[in-house]
Amino acid sequence: MLFPSDEPLRGPLQEFDFDTDEEEGDSPKAPIGKRKKSKQAERPLKIIPTASDASSDDSDASDDEERVTMANMEARSKALDARAAAEAELDAEELRGAQEDEEEDEDVDMDGEADEEGNMDAEPFHLPTAAEREEEKARGGPDLQVVQRRLRECVRVLEKFSKRAEKGRSRSEYTGQLMADIASYYGYNDFLVEKFFQLFPVAEAIEFFEANEVSRPVTIRTNTLRTRRRDLAQALVNRGVNLEPIGKWTNVGLQVFESSVPIGATPEYLAGHYMLQAASSLLPVIALSPQPNERVLDMASAPGGKTTHIAALLQNTGVVFANDANKARTKSLTANVHRLGCKNVVVCSYDGREFPKVMGGFDRVLLDAPCSGTGVISKDSSVKLNKSDRDFTLLSHLQKQLILCAIDSVSPESKTGGYLVYSTCSVTVDENEAVVDYALRKRPNVKLVDTGLSFGREGFTKYRGKTFNPSLNLTRRFYPHVHNMDGFFVSKFKVEKRTKAQSAPVDAEMKEPADEGVDKEESAGFDSEEDRPYLEGSLSVLLEDGCILTLLFLQRRNEGG
């Protein structure tokens, strides 16, 4: 289901105009499946034909018509009213017919299911019992067609449970069977299937799982430090690349449909004219909106797509500190910085939680935090099986630490900035709204502001009995089945000066009763003893953009920094 403000990448393809005088021909219409003939099939395509649309036959007929005068005006008005009433009756009749057809289909579906040729199945749908499921497993699992039909029927029943469910069967039985079939059909573990099911209605959840099986469109970002988008598009078209602008929300993105040459090895790519970059990764930098001559920190920057985008928006003025905790990944970061001609970038490798001590006073900070990668499953299918509740607990703990450090790294006295953008390539609430709500409670001098993104769904303000800060509706969520881009979350903070009233309770933070599921940290540092179980418990998780990285959980206090 698309929202009016959502602007997906999919849709009819339009030819990219490169100042040619050629007129675009009529595109062939897509084939239409079998359907009932509409009662409005004979209506004119245009409600109000213009003079330019009139044919010679129309002109002959119009000559016979009387001119509108005071004498015939009332009669002509009545005729128009009668025509409008007839059309309204036709609409109502068609609506009633559609409702009757739907009721008939429901009755038919309860007795059996029609195949592609319209023949009815001999056996109606039956939800298997626990014993039948055990027998099915003993036989080696269900047939693929059986699973497909069961998925379809369970979704249909859950949409109107009171009318379509078998007598004596509960909703939880249908839901449990549906989740079990999704896990086996799409290859997820049971935990992740249940987690995704809590995010969407039943029918939309199926759309989400299905979208994760399809690759996202190939997109590139124009490097405005070296070229213009129009010039780049023309050069690539001349090399046999079929492309067009992504959308109105970005003036540097191009979507590649097909290419006769490797898109990552063209002379333009090697010369740094563009960066292969997912459309969703453009969103955090657009929300950050860096201004020339500012000091900007990219806290988790490798491989450099967002860093070089920031440098381009700064027009090589100011300075960008590109940090990544994994020193090995800074090699690719440095290579991209050089290739794209970014002269205002400083590459460094620190644990992001050390940045308030290492350096601060930034005008803007971008934290594209380490996450589970549940938004980029189409790129990394290993996420389907290797994620557990423990991973989300560890990640959310790390994200809460990083976001507090990022807030403390922003200068509230900045004349042009004072902003932080927090983003993840995850769709789970644990890593997104819960972390943002935690930051708002722990840092009373920050507030959420509009991201400036013209599309995307609003973040959750209520989720499974939890109530978050009402301002979380300013955050934005992006889904593969809605926007045809990787799952993403974007939020933007404004950091203001601390008042005395806000600063006073800081020393008493550790004395407050702990909130459920929330770790208590001090304003500038963290309790090593409290963090020890987390630091010793895991050495690697999925990080930024779905890549498998190694987290250096270093206890710098014990190791001397």
UniProtKB/TrEMBL annotation:
One of its GO terms (biological process) is rRNA base methylation. The active site is at 425 (nucleophile). S-adenosyl-L-methionine binds at residues 300-306, 324, 351, 368. It is found in: Nucleus, Nucleolus. InterPro entries: MeTrfase_RsmB-F_NOP2_cat, MeTrfase_RsmB-F_NOP2_dom, Nop2p, RCMT, RCMT_NOP2, RsmB-like_ferredoxin, RsmB/NOL1/NOP2-like_CS, SAM-dependent_MTases_sf. Residues 16-25, 55-66, 100-120 have a biased composition (Acidic residues). Residues 208-496 form the SAM-dependent MTase RsmB/NOP-type domain. Keywords: Methyltransferase, Nucleus, Ribosome biogenesis, RNA-binding, S-adenosyl-L-methionine, Transferase. This is Nucleolar protein 2. It comes from Laccaria bicolor (strain S238N-H82 / ATCC MYA-4686). The lineage of its organism: Eukaryota, Fungi, Dikarya, Basidiomycota, Agaricomycotina.
